[in-house]
Amino acid sequence: MKKILFITVLSFCSGILFAQKTLSVRDESNQKAVAERAKEGEAIVVVRSPYDLSFESVTKEKEKDKKVTPYHVEKDGQLNVYHLLFSALPKYKDRKLLINSEGYKTLTQAIPLTSYEVKTFYVWDEKGKGAGVLKDLINEGNLLFNQCKYDQARVKFLDASESFQISPGSQEEENAIILGLDKVDQCIEAKEKAEKLFNKQEWLAAIAEYEKVLAMNPADSQSKERCKTCKERFDNSPRVITGTVTDINGNPLPGVNIVALESKDKRKNPRVATDASGAYQIKTTHKTTQLIYWKDMLDSEKTIQITGDIINITVR
C-alpha cells in the first residue's frame, strides 16, 4: 500500500514538473531608455514582462542571496516593470539572476554588472504571450496617438511589433502596427520641423509642417494653436511692395498716388507717390491684400490685388 502511495505521489510530482512552461529572456539594454542612473558601486537591472515575477540571485560560490525585492514596480500597459538594485563590486561579477513565475521553470540569467550601469531585460513566454497582449498594445498605441502623446505611442507600437515577431498575429494586426508606427513617426518628424521653423519665425513653412500633423491627427490642439499663432504673426509681419506705374505705351507715370489698404480709414493707411521714373516703394504688412491708386484728385480710385512683393501697374 505504501509502495503504491509512493508511486502515486511521485507520478503527481513528475506531472507538475513536466507541466511547467519555459520563459525566455532578451537583453534590451541598448533598446529601452531608462530614466534613472545607478550610483558608484551600484548597478540597476530593469525587467519588463507581461507576467508576475519574483527574483533571487546566486553568486559564484553557489550561495543564494536573500530574496531580491524590487525597489520599484510599475505598470507599462500590459507589462510589469521591475527595478532591481545590485552591488557592482568586482566580487559579484559572476552573479546570476533567478527569475521565477508561477507555472514556469526558474529562468537563470547572468548579470555581470559594473558601476553606474543600467541593464534592461524582457521576459516572455514564446508560446503563451497571446494575441490579447498584442491587441492591447495596438489599442494603447492608438489611444496615446489620439491624445497626442506621440513618443509614448511609438513605444507601444514598437512593443507590439516585437510581440508580433515573437508570436505572430493576424494580417490586420500587422497592418495596424505598420500604420501606427508610420503615422507616429510622421507626426514626430513634422512636429520637430515645425517647432524649429516656429523658433526661427519662418511662419509659412511652420504652418505647412503643423498642417501635416493635423492631416494625420485633427485632434492635435497644440498644432492647431500653433497654426493660428503662425498665421497671426505672419499677417502682422512687415513687407515692402515695390513696382513701377506706366501708361499703356510703357511710359513711366510720376506722381501717381498709391495706398496700401490696411484699414477702411484711408487717412491711416500707408501712402506714397511714384517718382520721376514711375517707381514706388510702400511699406505694409502681409495681411494687406489690396493697393489703391490714382493719378490726381480728378481720377477715380482703382484697386489692384497684392499677389507678391513686386506689383507693376499699367494705367489705362
What is the topology?
Layout: H1 2-19, E1 24-27, E2 42-49, E3 54-58, E4 72-76, E5 79-87, E6 96-100, E7 107-110, E8 117-124, H2 131-146, H3 150-166, H4 171-199, H5 203-216, H6 221-235, E9 238-247, E10 257-260, E11 271-273, E12 279-285, E13 290-294, E14 302-305, E15 313-315
Parallel strand pairs: 2-8, 9-15
Antiparallel strand pairs: 1-8, 2-5, 3-6, 4-5, 6-7, 9-12, 10-11, 10-13, 13-14
Helix pairs in contact: 2-3, 2-4, 3-4, 4-5, 5-6
Description:
- The protein is an alpha+beta fold.
- It contains six helices and 15 strands.
- It has helices at 2-19, 131-146, 150-166, 171-199, 203-216, 221-235; strands spanning 24-27, 42-49, 54-58, 72-76, 79-87, 96-100, 107-110, 117-124, 238-247, 257-260, 271-273, 279-285, 290-294, 302-305, 313-315.
- The strands form four sheets. A five-stranded mixed beta sheet has the order 1-8-2-5-4, with no helix packed on it.
- β4 (72-76) and β5 (79-87) form a beta hairpin.
- The protein is elongated and about 100 Å long.
- It starts with a helix and ends with a strand.
- Mean pLDDT is 85; it is low at 2-18.
Q: What structural keywords apply?
A:
disordered N terminus; four-stranded antiparallel beta sheet; five-stranded mixed beta sheet; 15 strands; 316 residues; 27% strand; alpha+beta; 6 helices
Order of helices and strands: HEEEEEEEEHHHHHEEEEEEE
- Which spans have pLDDT < 50 for at least 5 consecutive residues? 2-18
Instruction: Report the count of strand segments.
Output: 15
Task: Please give the count of helices.
Answer: 6
What is the rounded Rg? 35 Å
